[in-house]
Every structure is written in C-alpha cells, then in structure tokens.
Amino acid sequence: MLIVIGVVLLVLLAAAAWVGIRALLVKQDLEQVVPLTSSLKQAVTEQDQAAVARDSSELSSRASSAASLSGDPIWRAAEVIPFIGPNLTAVREIAQVADDLASKAVAPLARIATEVKAEDFKPQNGAIDVAPLEAARVPVSGAQVALTNAQKSVAAIDTSGTIGQVTSAVDQIEGELDALVPTVTALDNAVQLLPSMLGAEGPKQYLLLIQNPAELRSGGGIPGALALLKTDGGKLTLEQQASSADFPRFQQPILPLPAETQGLYGSIVGEYIQNVTLTPKFSLSGELAQAMWQQRYGTTVDGVISVDPVTLSYLLGATGPVGLVTGDQLTQENAVSLLLSEVYARYPLPAQQDLFFAAAAKAVFDKVSAGDIDPIKLVDALTRAGSERRIMVWNADEQSRDVLAGTTLAGDLPAYSDERTGLGLYFNDGTGAKMDYYLTADTQVGSLVCRQDGKPYQVVQVTVKNNAPADAGTSLPEYVTAGGAYGVSPGSVKTFVSAYGSPGLVNLGVMRDGASVSALSTSDDGYGVTQIPVQLAPGESTTLTFGYLAPRSQSTIGEFQRTPIVNMNETSELSLSCESALW
Fold first, then answer.
1. Angle at 203 between CA 290 and CA 315, to 5 degrees
2. How many CA atoms, within 13 angstroms, populate the side-chain half-sphere of residue 13?
3. pTM for this structure?
4. Closest by CA position to 550, among listed 565, 528, 532, 530
C-alpha cells in the first residue's frame, strides 16, 4: 500500500512540476504579446514593412506556443483543482484567444501592411487606385470577425476566482479589444464599401452637404453649401456646386415625414434644404436632400455625404495650406475662424459668402484629388471627423446602407441592446443666424443605483455658454446676430436642446441650474425625448440635467452621441448622488 501511495505522490508531483514549468513558459510567452503588439502598431504606422513581417511572425510564434503549452491533457486535468484551477482555465483561455488573434487577425492584416503602402491610396491625376482596396476585402473581413469573436470570448472568461495578476491580464486584453474592434470594423466597412462608392463598378454621383455649425442643426449645422461629386473607376470630379439660396421653399414636405419628426421639428424639415438636418436621423436627412436635389436639378444622386468646415480643417492638416483665389491661405489653424466667423464681417452679402465657401471647398478638393497630401494624416483626419459625427453617409442602395449600419458614419440614433442603453444630446439653432460659432457645451454622462430593485439612474448633463463678446449685439454683423428678427436680442443665442433616451428608458425630465423645470416630453422613433429652449446673453451660461431610469438592474450606458458643435470637448464622467430632484 505504501508503495502505491508513493507512486501516486510521485505522479502528482510530476504533474504539478509539469504544469508549473509550463505555466512559467506560458507566462513568458504571453508577457511578450503586449510589447510585440505595440511594436507591430508602430511598424505599421511607420510603414516599416520588414519590421511588420518580423513582429508579426514573432507574435504568432509566441501566441501559438502559449496555446500549445496550456492545452495538453495534464493542464486541463489540473483545472479542476480548487483555487489553482480557475487561474489555469483563465490563462488557457487567454492563450487560445491570443493564438486565434495572431493567426486570424494579426497575420492577415500584417500581410496587407507588407504588400500595400499608404502611398498606394494617394490620388494620382484625380483618381484613386481601387485595386488595393478590393484585394483587402477578404483578409480585413476575416480579421474583423476574429476580433469580434475574441472580444466575446474574453468577456466570457470567469475571473471570479482568479488571482489579481490573472484578473488584471484579462481586463487589459478586454480593454485593448474594446478599443481595437471599432477601428478594424471601420476599416472593414471602408474596404467593403469604398470601391463601389469610388465607381469601381460604374459611375456614381454623390451629393455633398457642407453643414455650417455656426447655425446649429441636430445633424451638425445648416446645409449652406452643396456640391455634386462624380466617381468613375476611382476618378473623382467636382461636377457642380450650389448653395442653399439656390433652392426654393417646397410648399409641402418633399417626402412624407414621420409624424413624430414633424411634431418635434415641424414640416420645415422637408420644405427647406437648410432644415433637412433638424432631425438627428441622417437616414431621413439623406433621403430628403436627395429628393430636393432631384427636384431642383433633375439628377438622382446615389448617396449623400455630409461634412463641415471643422472636417476641412482636419484635412488641411494632411494637405498643408491651400491658396484661395481671394489671396487667402487656408490653413488648419485658420479654417474654422475664417469660414465660420471672419467671412461674415468681410462679405456682407450672402451671395458673396457663398462664392467664398465654394472657392474654399473647391481648392481643398483640388489639392486632395491631385494627390498633394500625406496619406497617413489623411486617414487620421477622416477617422477623427468620423468619430465626432462630422462625416455622415447615406446611400440610396440598401445593401450599402447595411454595411454602415451601427457606425457613426450612418448617423443613426444611439445604439442600444438588452444590456446597454443609448443616449443622445442634440442642438438646433433658434436665433436664426450664425451665433452658434460662440457656443460651447461641456457634456458629462453618469449612472447611479439608488433603488432597491437595482435599476440605475442615467444622466446627461450639459453646461451651455454664450462666449460672444459683451458688445456682440453692436460689434457683430446683423447677418450673424439676426438683428432681433426672430425675437432674440442681438448678441444673444437661442438654442433648442433635445435629449434622447433609447427605448425602455423612463424619461424623468430635466433640471435647469439645479431646479426642476417644465419641458416638452415626447418621443421620436421609440426614443424618449425631452426638449427645452435656452436663451443666453453674451457671457451667460446654464446647466441642464436630463435624467432617465434604466429598464433593468444590469443596464449600463452604451453609446452617447451629440451634435458636433464648433467647440467640442471630451465628454467626461458625471459624479452623482442619490439626492437629485429628478428622482
């Protein structure tokens, strides 16, 4: 009997040593994954193709080794041991995720990075070579699927019984994936959609709306300038330019409006080109703009793309200064102030302003299409503008719309799910002029549990301020202040602020500067809406606090979106207490 016991002990000790040694080796492999990932990112950014190939190979080798070492039967058997087992299980699952990512996501993307240079995407003689985009479709799509699956796998790892080091490793990987998945998803959307939009399958025409956030609309600003873009085999041409003054008021909405949209924003959404973005639903704005352009010029466009002067300023960071026919140098630093403020003091007539806007837009377009641009900075500029909802795209083709669904480019209302709610904050000008250039909005979002049923309160708070000079009523042009034409004192800013809460949220109303106030409470496409007008004199500010009760105890705030105003701040976390008058 003693001999049998001795043999069993020897086997157990051997197994423990086996697992222990392998655990150390797995630890060494996995500890190299994060620095290798960072090094690989830098190599891709710097277009160092040799380094990309080297780091990708090393990463794959390390991840494969970790998965192999932690996947043998002895390791799996040891996972049933109390205390030790949960840690071994979590480490094995981390290693498997790393191996899957290395082979199914990193390797394909690295191959693309070594075969394709950023220079390949620079326009040449007004045309973009769509072949690299088409070649990237399959590997990028595969990488996106692998990353999404990895994100779900890591989220499912049970760390309730793991030590701090293992828990921290899981949290770190989860955070990295949460940051990376949207980026690769956007890349996947781009390579799936761009070849078609660039005319790879035949000529396409797109209506470009340039929204002016100096006169706010929920979608960004008043569409003051428009252009018709044609794409054919990757070649881009600017076919036609127009201004909002070229469009008449349609006697009734150009298309039937949803009853809730008309109730909130009025029939003018479908009657004026300037008002199609009063609604935050860009799918509706795109349809209305397409119909108005067709009615005015007889051309049915394949889609509508929205940008603003802030986007142009980002692009100028990639192109460098652009000379205008007026003798001005349009730069990243002066574009916003020149296009949204100085132009109104320099040119008193709207027709002159329109010509200046058209000249600026054409000059930037010509420089981009000529390929006189830094491709890496171009991607950064477009990514930043897209994340801020300054670029939105509506395609007439349903399949193309499906590709963008759920992204910021689609301009949908905030996404939500069973576990996550969606919140939105939108601004519409009530001054009837260009005073929103001086508006700032400091936004905060927070969540707090105060009820026994565990359902959290979710809050959006915004401090809105009019930063116009004290003498704005007399020092600024009447075209900017409206001169009191709409009942707003010159120099003051009137803004309609609308907070949206996704279906299932209970709308608790709004406080202004700590006191409950009355406001319009309604709905739009199933979202609970609170709308309140705010009028501010120069230097004046006010704080609005919108509250909602989440539908279930585990609800967290998912997407929060807002109107892209001129002066954007990062949304911060709101500190809350259970003594608020909203609950």
1. 70
2. 6
3. 0.85
4. 528
Number of Cβ within a 10 Å radius of residue 577: 7
Strands (E), 347-438: 392-395, 420-429
Check if the beta carbon of residue 132 is closer than 8 Å to that of residue 116.
yes
Q: What are phi and psi of 328, to 5 degrees?
A: -75, 155
Question: What is the Cα 425 distance to its own chain's centre?
Answer: 15
Could you tell me the pLDDT band of residue 59, with boundaries at 50, 70 and 90?
Answer: low
* Residue scoring higher pLDDT (74 or 455): 455
Q: What percent of the chain has pLDDT over 70?
A: 90
Question: Cα–Cα distance between 577 and 323 in angstroms, integer?
Answer: 54
Residue type for position 457? Y
CB contact at 8 A, 196 and 204: yes
Q: Residue 158, class by beta-carbon neighbours within 10 Å (0-12 exposed, 13-18 middle, 19+ buried)?
A: exposed
Distance from C-alpha of 290 to C-alpha of 293, rounded to nearest angstrom: 5
**What would the two tokens of residue 234 be?**
């990757």
Residue 198 backbone zone (phi > 0: left; psi -120 to 50: alpha; other: beta): alpha
Residues 490, 477: Cα–Cα separation, whole Å: 10
Going by C-beta distance under 8 Å and a sequence separation of 6 or more, which residues neighbour residue 470?
538, 539
Is the pLDDT at 40 greater than 60, yes or no?
no
Contact 229, 315 (CB under 8 A): no
Convert 492-530 to b/e letters by CB count within 10 Å (16 or more is b).
Answer: bbbbbbbbbbbebbebbbbbeeeeeeebeeeebbebbbb
List of E strands, 58-180: none
Per-residue tokens: 235: 């070649």
Distance CA 186, CA 545 (A): 33
> pLDDT tens digit string along 370-407?
888 888 788 888 888 988 999 999 999 998 888 888 88
Q: Percent of the chain beyond pLDDT 90?
A: 52
CB 491 within 8 A of CB 537: yes
Length of the chain: 583
Q: What is the pLDDT of residue 539?
A: 97
* pLDDT on residue 11: 38
Burial of 129 (0-12, 13-18, 19+ CB in 10 A): middle
Neighbours of 449 (CB within 10 A): 14
